[in-house]
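pipeline/complex-builder :: batch 7 item 3
reading input block
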Amino acid sequence: MEVRINHSKLELKEGDITEADTEAVVNAANRSLLGGGGVDGAIHRVGGPEILEECRKLGGCETGDAKITTGGNLKAKCVIHTVGPVYQGGGKGEAELLASCYRRSLDAARENGIKSVSFPSISTGAYRYPMEEAAKIALRTVTDYLKKHQEVELVRFVLYGKSAYDTYSQALAALTENT
Ligand code: ADP
């Protein structure tokens, strides 16, 4: 599924983010930036040790923020590491922190002249954010960002499994109907 937002394209795809051919891929990292499971484990496994070496020099990352490194052996030339919130019921500012992850990642892309970015569904694995809620926040935040900023030409969500893809597709359909 894809939609146009001003001069940019927003795409949903089912797949594995380590195979993405966009200039940057976003990692659902943790605050240490020293590796973990899920997307993080997969990116370091496929991207190789060069990514971790750069991460070690960054001194971690706050929840809601993003930092960039090389893509190592990935097809993508850069990895943007962002730290999603752990879902604790929704009353701890999780929605704003999750939105911030998408904005700060796109800021990092723009600052580095990157025109295409793939995102996973941040916080919806080990950090337990409900997928439907997370999808709405992710898509609304990226859509709003692309309306304001023209530099990033392609944002792709790479969703792991059919159920994640379907949830994002429904959320995107609802969002575009209402705008
Ligand atoms: P978090 O700690 O932010 O929750 P996870 O990596 O545990 O991050 O999970 C985030 C989402 O990414 C989950 O929905 C999970 O199913 C999905 N995911 C896991 N591995 C991959 C992958 N290789 N490519 C794309 N998405 C993935």
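note: The two ends are 17 Å apart (CA to CA).
queue -> next item
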